[in-house]
Design goal:
By secondary structure, this protein is of the alpha+beta class. It has one domain: 2-Layer Sandwich (NE0471 N-terminal domain-like), CATH 3.30.2020. It has 3 helices and 6 strands. A 3-stranded antiparallel β-sheet has the order 1-2-3. The model has no long low-confidence stretch (mean pLDDT 91). The structure holds zinc ion.
């Protein structure tokens, strides 16, 4: 099965002082993502056991007022965020952010 080409967001905005991440995709679709939800679901090797897929991060330990401070694009496939709790090793593929849009819509 051929993978569909994953869109690359045209703009990445840190809204509400970084509490929300707003992505604008080609064609004008906009998705919103909670910084707290993204941080709690951090896929990096510190937060998720690479061998078992078990989450090592206790989501309850993520500060509820967590913000995204900075972001950088990783190639043409992902975004990396620097969070206000000092964590920054998670890489969030565009594919995941794009597919997860429905559950972030209000
Ligand atoms: Zn992490």
């Amino acid at each position: 099965m051929a993978l569909r080409r994953i869109p690359v967001p045209e703009t990445i905005e840190l809204a509400d002082d970084g509490a929300r991440i707003v992505l604008t995709w080609p064609g004008g679709k906009v998705t919103e993502h909670s910084a707290l939800d993204l941080r709690r679901g951090c896929p990096c090797a510190v937060c998720v056991d690479e061998m078992t897929g078990k989450q090592l991060l206790d989501p309850a330990r993520v500060p509820p007022d967590l913000r995204a401070r900075h972001y950088s694009r990783v190639g043409r496939y992902a975004i990396q965020f620097s969070w206000s709790d000092g964590h920054s090793t998670g890489i969030y593929p565009y594919a995941t952010l794009y597919v997860n849009r429905e559950e972030n819509e209000t």
